[in-house]
Here is the input.
Amino acid sequence: MSWTGFLSPSWAWLFLLIIPLVIVYFLKLKRPRCEIPSLVLWHSVINDQRVNSPFQRFRKHLLLWLQLAILLSLILAAMQPFLRGEPGSGDNLPILVDCSASMSAIDTRGGPTRMERAKERITELIDAALPGRICLIAVGAGARQLTEFTNNKRILAEALDTLTVRDVPGNLVDGLRMAQALARRETIGTVTLVSDGNFPDLQDTADGQKIARVDVELPFKLQYEKLETDAVNMGITAFNARRQSAAGAADSLTPWDVFVRINGSPNDVTSGEVLLEQDGQEVGRQPIALEAGQSKRLVYSLQTSGVSRLTARIVSDGFDGLSSDNTAYLELPVSRSLLVWCDTDLQSYRHALQVFPDVTVYPNDDASGQPDVYDLAITETTKKANPNLEASVRLVIGAIPEDLAQLVTTRSGNSPVVDWNRSSLLLQHVNLDSIEIADEPVRGDDVLDQNFREAGYEILATGRSGPLVLARHAPGRQAFYLLFHTDHSTLPYRVGFPVLIKNAIDITRHAAGLAEVRGQPTRVLAPRLLDRNTTYSVAAPGSPTQTFRTGPDGLLSGVPAPRVGIYRISEDGSEVARVGAGVLDAGESSLASADLIEPRDEELRVSASTTQIDTDRPLWPTLAWIAFIVLLVEWWYFQGKTIRVSG
Amino acid sequence: MNTASSTNQLTTLLDNQALTRLERLRLQPNRRKTNRTQGEHASGKGGSSTEFADYRNYVPGDDVRFVDWNIFARLNRPYMKLYQYEEVMHVAILVDASNSMKFENKFERARQLAAAMGVTALMGVERVSAYVVGASEEPPRVMPPSSGRASMRRLFDFFERAECGGDAPIDGAVEAMLRRHRGRGIAIVISDFLTPASLARPFNLLYSAGLEIFALQLLGPTEIDPELTGDLRLVDSENGTTVDVSSIDELHGIYHEHREQLQEHVRRQSRTRNGRFLSISSEAPLDWVLFDLLQRQGWLK
Here is the structure.
């Protein structure tokens, strides 16, 4: 194997241009005319034998040689010669490119971002891997295949140009799984990962290195090209608020405790100020100084009278490597009473709900003011049985979901509670021991707990013959099913019953965002309850407006939020909601980087390649420079100072 | 010295101060080539000047006016007194007016030097004739032999009206001059001597015509040291022929060698015929040339 090669040897036909160049040189050599008194002396000079010596003959046509040198340099540059590095396999090579938030970090003040450095490195890798086929995969919150396997350098370069950083945590597993999927239909020997190593859940090894564990089997060799990182950063990793417990729904001003968590990078001490703005007005400013790797939580207290939008900003005293995590947004909802529907037959529940001051129970005597959507519905019917009853949280008493009719039935009998999930939100602090239940849910033959999970249900309590309490979680919706009727049990007479109601109220309050609000992280916007079957447009920062349509349940879900900023949701041009999203990820803000990647099989631990692949070194820039320099020499040599003899 | 332009000047070629100094100078030929006509140059015994030379015996038929009667009285034998014979010397001034002299003030300086030489010769009571040769197909412009101070105006007018242009080579110019010139003396040839032909023939013709050769070569600064670079097409100003030269700056050394060879050739052709040769730059100061260089070289005294 030779130590050089050409990426575009077909351009060698350009060597034919030498022929017209020589012909044109001799036919059309244009020399400046210079009139002199007499040619006598110059004839003698030209006739001198030394002038016609081989060297002088060469000098005589030096212009031709220089032009040939320029032409040859340009032709060779067009053929794209290169010095061979490590031999390319010629196989298919997927290149995973980390485009998570940390890739927009700058490691030195005024320097390039990590993504810019990654692109340079990938360009080298592409040059080295050609003529093999390459597939570019962007790894952000998920994996996106940027190109098919191709050896078309233009397509790869264009895909690389369009690659931008997304303000989301990286998900290496998704990228590896996509490569894994590609390996099923293409022969893949090696997968190259270009990243700064900022992966979630990094762990320290005994020798002080950081390791990222990925739950993926790798049917290929993983080449981990780690970018050099040395950034200092301070970022907001959590932004939430909790309504002060003393507040009641009737108060005109709602007091909130706002919590901002700031994480520093593990490299250096960081300091600055954290500003809190409420509806554009600064309401708090606290200085902060963090030791290396330290995290601090700042608390602000404020009051709201309605919907209030909060913005937290970090103003760093020194160099801050990552700017996208310096801003976070939070929307505090208006304070109101919980709207609870409780069937009139469920007197025990209605009675228990009376002790909560900020709960309005329906149906009530005021028949005209019934809302369309309730926060909590305590009912004896399922959603399918009563589709007009809309609620974020539904507590179904004594009914079996229609889709579980084949799995469980109810019969009369005595069914003691065998076990229950004491950590579930609904049943925490609820003692179900020695409760007598007259209805006995019985699971079908050969029905396992797994069948319930596959149907989307979580078993919270189990009786002797089957599940007693089920939970179903869906985006924006929660439903709890008590498969026995509490009126046919001793539960309403136990202390656990009001605790159960309290837990349901707390779940509802959290679901309605009335008790605690969390900052919206990037990736995907939280589902939002809007009008049913309506088309909404979402204007994202730095992205074109996209349209989404709500379903029959009125939920707007699946809206991607790849960038930090305000997302405006509008219907027919009028804004109906505004959501701010921030990075809010401790891993991204720490800018820590993994030295090792450990797949499921530890023997295949992959270390970062500190000595990068010796890629092919393209020579065309050198040749282009040579051509340019020769051109300058020619210009200087032949077009320089010329004295004309004046008459 | 700048060319005089004031109305008080005798000529536009030379200023009065230079003329005054030139009047005191004389041409210094290596050998006195004179004519039989009486002039200022002593040519040997038997002349009629007042300069005593020798005695000889009286022979019948001698002019008794030259018998030394004092000797006759003492010796009683007649002896004849012999006196120096003074003859006139011709100074022919030939100015090359071909196209090559147009460059770099060469023709202007040639006219000035010719006028200066003519003044010097006229003030030395020589017979001065002048020839300006430009085109080969045209007869040369001629100033007939003149002498005496009164001819200075004529000399100045001749050179002031002289024009440059033509393709006459210097060897042809010499032949054209000799077809009209009569008389022995000095031939002052002012040219750049850039001719492909050998100068042996024209210099032989001058020598055989009894003219001592004063060859004065005028070269422009760029002819002495050409600062040309790159690839050029050189065009001959006289005949329009061209020659392509590449990397001309690399040939400067060879050019100097050939220029020096040409100068040595002219010098040798002059010396072998008891002549003089001098090469000067057309940009050299005229005062320095006339009153320093030419005197140091023995041309003038």
Remarks:
- The two ends of chain B are 20 Å apart (CA to CA).
- Residues 110 and 275 of chain B are 19 Å apart (CA to CA).
- The beta strands of chain B are 38-57, 79-87, 90-96, 127-133, 141-146, 185-191, 211-219, 232-236, 242-245, 276-281.
